[in-house]
Amino acid sequence: MRRHRRVKILATLGPASQDPAIVEQLFLAGADVFRINMSHSSHELLRERVETIRAIEKKHQRSIGILADLQGPKLRVGEFEDTVVTLVRGDTFVLDSDPAPGDQTRVRLPHPEILAALEPGHVVLIDDGKVRLHVIEAAPDRAVAIVDVGGKISNRKGVSLPDTVLPMSAMTEKDRSDLDAALAVGVDWIAVSFVQRPEDIAEVKKIVRGRAGVLAKIEKPQAIARLDEIMEISDALMVARGDLGVEMPVEKVPGLQKRITRMARRLGKPVVVATQMLESMITTPVPTRAEVSDVATAVYEGADAVMLSAESAAGQYPLEAVATMDRIAVETENDSNYRAILSSQRSAPEATGADAIADAARSVAETLDLRAICAWTSSGSTACRIARERPKPPVLALTPNRDTARRLTLVWGVHPIVTKDASDMEDMAKRAGKFANREMFSKDGDRIVIVAGLPFGTPGATNMLRIAFTGSEK
Question: Are 200 and 223 in contact (CB under 8 A)?
Fold first, then answer.
């Protein structure tokens, strides 16, 4: 089950991929991690999907990652007396706390925290930005706004607030319940929506307590304003371009994608590029040329993973979408410009022994054209450090911890293998070579580079690099 690409594919499960046989086919087509969207999943459905994925994992003897994506707060307007109203540019429109049905002049905003936080000049977007208002008067129970972009508004349409920092947690009661359920069934990653500040991630990590990795979805301007702090505390990042493009000018999103991707690589943390990557494949069996270029751009940029949302969850061609993304990634990574682009983005290693050895492993492997870099790792940090260097040879992560192996399925270029820890130096070299051969990264007599920490079994003690032959040859 070796992949012939370094970037990982994250596929969302949904009605189109409900059948266990389809989930298995998605895995065989190239999905490395499965996303379960808690906005549309009951706890029972979550458990069933996790059981399905673990059965596929056991059958194929290859670690599969599972990401549970928390819904986060859903901010919506109330209901209208006539269900739908049409606002015209220049109209005055009031958002207030009155529970009476709305009309052409006003509607209830059932979120007192929003009314309390709005200030004159703040922008209010309704229905994914199709209607745009700006506030001219604000009070604790009402906000008067002018319509800048008109259109129809119907019951319960979503509200976005690009200028307003809301005094509310990224976690609702539903999210807390969903988080407990996700941890109970053993998911590997938790994606946090509606992140505004580093405290939002700290709150989730306090509950998770290391039982899963915590991924911050960057989808709000407020998160961009505190990006460094959020990235520092998170275990991984997601560029959620759909929501970013609603709350920020769409022309800024490509630059932000590059900025976040490069910052995450510099920190050695996985980064996922998400939303609308092959959107047309929801209804057609082939993507647009622009979508192909979009996926390739993320691969050239060195993203750890690219994600399919509705394409695999609700589209008519889920298998074709995964297979197409796989082919695009393989072709891009085989392009003669690919290595040069990755190398040009490489930053200097941190001033630690582990980072210096990771950089040296990459340099030795590329200089000597070795077949693989084999990293013995307990926590996964050694493999992540090596992946940060984006080496030309693949990275085999040998770990005694199944949870570590599953989390590493999200990391660029890493092929995780669960095995008992090495007992001594010879065992370390012999079994690294055996796994490199078995997984078809090398053959007898090829050379590999091995990275480990001594004494064995000590997390975070990466301090050794060794070149070894695979197979029987010495």
Answer: no
Q: Phi/psi zone of residue 432: left (φ > 0), alpha (ψ -120 to 50 degrees), beta?
A: alpha
CATH 3.60.20.10 is the classification of domain 348-469: no
Tell me how far apart the alpha carbons of residues 274 and 35 are, in angstroms, rounded to a whole number.
11
| Catalytic residue numbers, as ranges | 35, 76, 217, 275
Contact 318, 17 (CB under 8 A): yes
Two tokens at 372? Answer: 């693989």
Spatial distance between the Cα atoms of 219 and 245, rounded to a whole number of angstroms? 8
| Cα–Cα distance, 122 to 184 (Å, whole number) | 41
Closest of 7, 48, 53 to residue 27, by C-alpha: 53
Locate the domains of the chain by residue range.
Answer: 8-72+171-343, 84-160, 348-469
d(CA 55, CA 46): 14
Question: pLDDT tens track of the chain, all 474 residues?
Answer: 789 999 999 999 999 999 999 999 999 999 999 999 999 999 999 999 999 999 999 999 999 999 999 999 999 999 999 999 999 999 999 999 999 999 999 999 999 999 999 999 999 999 999 999 999 999 999 999 999 999 999 999 999 999 999 989 999 999 999 999 999 999 999 999 999 999 999 999 999 999 999 999 999 999 999 999 999 999 999 999 999 999 999 999 999 999 999 999 999 999 999 999 999 999 999 999 999 999 999 999 999 999 999 999 999 999 999 999 999 999 999 999 999 999 998 888 888 888 999 999 999 999 999 999 999 999 999 999 999 999 999 999 999 999 999 999 999 999 999 999 988 999 999 999 999 999 999 999 999 999 998 887 677 678 899 999 998 544
Torsion on CA atoms 347, 352, 355, 360, rounded to nearest 10: 100
373-376 and 414-418 beta bridge pairing = unpaired
Domain 8-72+171-343, architecture per CATH: Alpha-Beta Barrel (3.20)
Q: Hey, what CATH topology would domain 84-160 get?
A: M1 Pyruvate Kinase; Domain 3 (2.40.33)
Structure tokens at 152: 């129809």
